[in-house]
Amino acid sequence: MSSEIAQVVAFLRETPPFGALEERAIAALSRTITVRYARAGDRILQAGQHNDWLFVVRSGAVELRLAGEELTARLTQGASFAYPSLLRGGEVRNETIALEDTLLYLVPAAEFHRLRETSPPFRAFFSDDEQRRLRHALEQRAQGRAGGFDGASVGDVAHLGAPVSCLPETSIGDAARLMRQHKVSTLTICADGKLLGIFTDKDLRNRVVAADVPGTEPVGAVMTGNPRTLPASASLAEAVALMASGGFRHIPLVDEAGRLSGMLSATDILAHLGNNAIDIGLSIARAQDAEALAAAARRIPESFAAMARSGTQPAQLARFTSALGEAAHRRAAQLAERELGPPPVPYALVVFGSLAREEQLIGSDQDNGLLIDDALEPEEGAYFEALGGRISDILDACGFVYCKGGIMAKNADQRLTLAQWRARYARWIDNPDEDAILRATIFFDMRCVHGEAALVHRLHEETVSAAAANRIFVSYIARDALRSKVPLGIFRNLVLDRSESGEKVFDAKAQAVVPVVDIARTLALGHGIAAVGTVARLRALSELGHMAGEDSESLIDALAFVNELRIVHQAGLAGAGQRADNAIAPDSLSPLEREHLKDCFSVIRRGLDSLRRNLAGGIA
Amino acid sequence: MLQGWRFRRGLERLAQCDVPALRNYARADWPERAAPARQARFIALDFELDGLKDNAHLLQAGWVPFTVEGIDLGGARTFDIRSGKRLDDAAVTIHGIGEQRAREGAPLADVVAALLGDLAGAVIVAHGASIERGALQGAVRKLHGAALPVRAVCTLAIERHLSPRLTGTGSYRLGAARNRHGLPDYDAHDALTDALAAAELFLAQLRRLPADQRLGTLEAMTP
Questions:
Q1: pLDDT at A492 over 60
Q2: CATH annotation of A154-244+252-275
Q3: Which of A293, A361, A456, B41, CA to CA, is 20 to 30 A from A493?
């Protein structure tokens, strides 16, 4: 006599979290199950009833009606329900109705509790706490990832040991001979053990031969001084981002005392990862005209898709993509300046929103502006008008399409002097009104990508402290954050939002990412935290005691999970040559992913609730 | 009326026989034919046979007890049945039970004893129940020389009653009938799987029949 029910075992094996159990345990479980049938419209569970079963939908669909609210959730094949009642001793609070003819597998409560005790994945899945469930899910996914970024440091892949080096007084000719002797393309220039600069094959071509500098001159005169360095403990991801945004291929590694300890080349990383972000970063940084830049920048989605396929973590992928975006913006400004001549007064190209937060994926439009020194004379305005227009045009050709809301250097109200920007921010902060706030929140995520960084730095610091000092302003942005429509549940084809909704897809950005970004921004501004990245803001909030560590980590997890779904979705579109969007069809998700997405929604809704309690009422 | 009387008389005869399994079967608490079907105990039963001829051998048996409240998989049983006979090649390709496996199965007498134990007081449910009824009665006659009175309902007959005007070959097959009731696809031709499939189908059919549907009326539909 066989000891398992083949069809039931086959189903459980494919159904989370039962699939995580050992084969023997699944076979044993199959024999404890009772099969029940419900016709469409039948009531399966009623509030107030006592329940002794974990229900699993084998086929069909049921609707959970949450007690006391007009909210519903539709569960389909593979979904489990009624476990909250088991966790509270059997008391049923939600009504469950069969929406279709439904076949149900019922696991006895005793078996459910036994499995929770003996199987950690089972317990984590049916945790009464969706935060823990989400954490567990992310851990599982991270384990399944193939990519080589996790945990790797630059010291792991670089050539450690003192690189070939010489003194700044060494003649260019001797330096070149040293490079030939050691077969290196990069020479480090040091004095007293301190790194002063690097000298590369490219420098030899551009700054010596092409510039008719005699080989007897000291190499110190033609080297690249103060090169960007990293400690050997830095992550590989950081190095890729630095190379991609800076458009260079070598990074000297230094120890705690600033002494040279090795040289990291793009080749080392490529050999380790097969990642072409650095190559694209180089093509962007070296583009000699707008056309070459656009050609290079249009390869960003391809690089994105390749990195997504290789299993790069969501946060790192966003960091690389942002780094390439930043490089493209910087180069666009440099090329525009080359066409129009040097700027009459210092200025900065500022980016807002996701690029400023270094959280950009592909398919974003441009959000930028010019911040011009107050020394600007009226007749010099024409230069910046031309510059802003040119930058926006180049970026549009690069795939960063014109901003629908007009937040781009092409528009006059995005080309302001420091004093004018200050006045604009002061209007938002001192006289907030709902309409203005709606369009202004992304201005509180800003970063300089080209030009006079000090101007942006000053404006940002002033803005953050002014915002923190104004409770009414903070309550306005909190209320703005609360407008976001986080789905309440996932239906087979659509995500329901208070029972009336015709949408067949879920907007992963607007309905999940934006609320987390809003929560982090609102609380960060409310507490005068200058960090711009969402994760950095959430971590700072918990470190400073303004948010429970668990809550901040859960929001970070929710963001990571949703971004992972977005990345897979966008990589698929990029692979098919389509323009990226954030419209994810719940049908394309696995039952497990749908479960975790529901957990994300619930974490985010709780974050918004807490925002409502703490800040939105500040006006009263 | 007459069917009920015939079943009672059959049980009385069986009670006289000296086989314990048959005597227990005869003395079980059997449901009234006039009682609502929703109160009865059922056994969904499926045999895999060596062909469809009258002398076909039983190769595999699978059954699972249930009531309207649900199918208890803990009670599910399945046996390969020992047979030394050459098997019908056409049948082997359908159910996949080869001669080797048939030689290693349980003796028919043991399987029938186990089945009769579970079946006492319960109504057989099968898709094409006349096959299972005939095969079981044939086995009991061969083993014990006794006529076994059997209570059975046929999901195929009920499906014809519920959806009388379907055309096309196969519209009343187990899989097709299940699809009409929103039940999932199962791999066919494993005795226990087919028994479970029939049990689920019967639960679905029961939900579409009147709540006070008499058991006897359903039994009378069985050919």
A1: no
A2: 3.10.580.10
A3: A361
